[in-house]
Amino acid sequence: MKDLRLFIIGIALLLCSCNAQQRVLYLQDVQDGSVVDIPEDYQIRIKPLDQLTVVVNSKNPELAVPFNSSSSYNALSGIPTASNFNSSSLQVLTVDENGMLNLPVIGQIKCKGMTRAELSQVIANKIIEGGLIADPNVNVRFANMTISVLGEVARPGRFEIAKDRITILEALALAGDMTIYGNRENVAVIRERDGKNVVSVLDLRSKDIFDSPVFYLEQNDIVMVSPNKYKAATAEINQNRSFWISLASTAISLATLIVTLTR
Description:
By secondary structure, the protein is of the alpha+beta class. Helices cover 31% and strands 24% of the residues.
């Protein structure tokens, strides 16, 4: 009988262990050697109200100065003064609601839907076509490339992204990964589309996430990790415990007061 009890306990512990592992593992249906096609050319594209920095360079630095937002000019001669550009001195340009970017000298350029590289090439072509600089080198960068990760992660917060492509798995890594209480089958990505917030829900236990349009994140996306049922149950128990402790404490205080008054 004793051996039977030990066997049953062992089986129960094994089943609990397997169940716990299934709750926390990512990509449970991926086999060793599996090949998943992902869009290699995926890059973040410019949206209305994005903030960008645009720097134009040339072999002759003075020719490039008027095109740069942080340029300064000699007030007497009107000749541009070359300056040393760095990330802290660059003026941030905002794409308007119609997807247009207003650039010095060049004027407005429609950039909605372009990648950084595509916009850089369009600006360079306009400079060359205008006979302004023969050898422009244009560098466009996002000034507001951030994502937010909230909920059951180790370090929730807002994170600046230095590259043009980041996956939801990389975003979770930035936030220190999910806690053991994170619900891996219910991770929401909130993305703004045409003035509306669109919510997509992912099951990170499945390889189907690779086919999701939100597997690659975009600027200002919000990732929300909901708690699993075990965290919810724990929170409810703690809340009830706090209530009963508070009630007992109040009752003791009231009883003490009554005893004091009746003496």
